[in-house]
């Protein structure tokens, strides 16, 4: 008998799912049978497109505008999910930004706070709404999309790296808090993934060659590499996995520059 990722009957909220990683995650969850809430902040046309793709493919999806850094927007997001699909079973905190490259001391504190608000406070606001719905059911999965930069510092992006490291610890702490309710909380840390937002890097032969030196495998990741892992982790096939970070990075954390010696 073939193994199957089965999410039939589940309701999933995927933040920042109008494009890139979020779009792929939403599509994979739908293909596994989940009903999906497509969330966007500004790109309504793209969010509508993803929603219609899922519906036309035989799935169920709704589209909801919300800025995850605003508590009232997040509350509205989950209320719409309740009304249209039912209480959430799966939350994927994907929405995030890297912000402007600024060295500490020469930076804009407002920009630092903006990155933290979206990347760390946003997942917190969403998670607290999710657990309020998951605890009565004694089940649920929360996936936080972090980054290899929860482990690896990135000069000029201290807000981004700090937010991802903070989100990793939030994952562990929340997992500890809700485990007795059969709720699992996991981080997924993408490495170098080809998305529209970083096209200027992988679309340039010189910068692509430099980036590939940082990856052990001989290619960059595709958005499907993240979507498939998230779908697996949300399923009962991963029912004993919680409180960890799963890197999906082609071996970037192996520090391949060291393969020829220290």
Q: CATH top level?
A: Alpha Beta
> Into which percent range does the helicity of residues fall?
40-55%
Stretches with pLDDT under 50, minimum 5 residues: none
Share of residues in strands: 5-15%
Q: Tell me the major beta sheet.
A: 7 strands, parallel
Q: Tell me the CATH superfamily.
A: NAD(P)-binding Rossmann-like Domain
- Strand tally is 7
Level-2 CATH architecture: 3-Layer(aba) Sandwich
Q: How would you state the average pLDDT, rounded?
A: 95
Structural class call reads alpha/beta
Order of strands, widest sheet: 3-2-1-4-5-6-7
CATH structural fold name: Rossmann fold
Taken from the alpha-carbon principal axes, the silhouette is globular
Calculate the terminal CA-CA distance, rounded to whole Å: 47 Å
Tally the helices: 8
Order of helices and strands: EHEHEHEHEHEHHHE
Cα-atom radius of gyration: 18 Å
Instruction: List the domain count as a whole number.
Output: 1
Report a brief summary of the structure.
The protein is of the alpha/beta class. It has helices at residues 20-31, 44-56, 71-84, 109-134, 158-178, 199-202, 205-212, 223-234; strands at residues 11-14, 35-40, 61-65, 90-93, 140-145, 183-190, 245-248.
Structure in words:
42% of the residues lie in helices and 14% in strands. The chain has helices at residues 20-31, 44-56, 71-84, 109-134, 158-178, 199-202, 205-212, 223-234, and strands spanning 11-14, 35-40, 61-65, 90-93, 140-145, 183-190, 245-248. The mean pLDDT is 95. The radius of gyration is 18 Å and the shape is globular. It has one domain (11-195, 223-249): 3-Layer(aba) Sandwich (Rossmann fold), CATH 3.40.50.720. Helix 3 (71-84) packs parallel to helix 4 and helix 4 (109-134) packs parallel to helix 5 (158-178). It is built from eight helices and seven strands; from the N terminus they run βαβαβαβαβαβαααβ. It has a seven-stranded parallel sheet, with helices on both faces.
């Amino acid at each position: 008998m073939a193994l199957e990722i089965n999410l039939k009957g589940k309701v999933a909220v995927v933040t920042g799912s109008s494009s890139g990683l979020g779009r792929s995650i939403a599509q994979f969850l739908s293909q596994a049978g989940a009903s999906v809430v497509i969330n966007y902040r500004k790109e309504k046309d793209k969010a509508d497109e993803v929603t219609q793709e899922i519906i036309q493919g035989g799935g169920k999806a709704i589209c909801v505008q919300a800025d995850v850094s605003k508590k009232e927007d997040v509350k509205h997001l989950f209320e719409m999910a309740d009304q249209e699909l039912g209480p959430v079973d799966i939350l994927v905190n994907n929405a995030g930004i890297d912000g402007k490259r600024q060295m500490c001391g020469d930076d804009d504190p407002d920009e630092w706070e903006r990155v933290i608000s979206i990347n760390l406070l946003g997942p917190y606001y969403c998670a607290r709404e999710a657990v309020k719905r998951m605890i009565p059911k004694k089940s649920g999965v929360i996936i936080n999309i972090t980054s290899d930069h929860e482990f690896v510092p990135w000069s000029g992006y201290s807000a981004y790296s700090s937010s991802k490291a903070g989100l990793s610890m939030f994952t562990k702490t929340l997992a500890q808090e809700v485990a007795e309710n059969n709720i699992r909380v996991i981080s997924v840390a993408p490495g170098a993934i080809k998305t529209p937002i970083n096209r200027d890097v992988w679309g340039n032969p010189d910068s692509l060659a430099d980036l590939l030196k940082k990856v052990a495998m001989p290619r960059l990741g595709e958005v499907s590499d993240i979507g498939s892992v998230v779908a697996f982790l949300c399923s009962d096939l991963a029912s004993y996995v919680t409180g960890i970070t799963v890197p999906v990075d082609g071996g970037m954390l192996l520090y391949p520059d060291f393969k020829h010696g220290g």
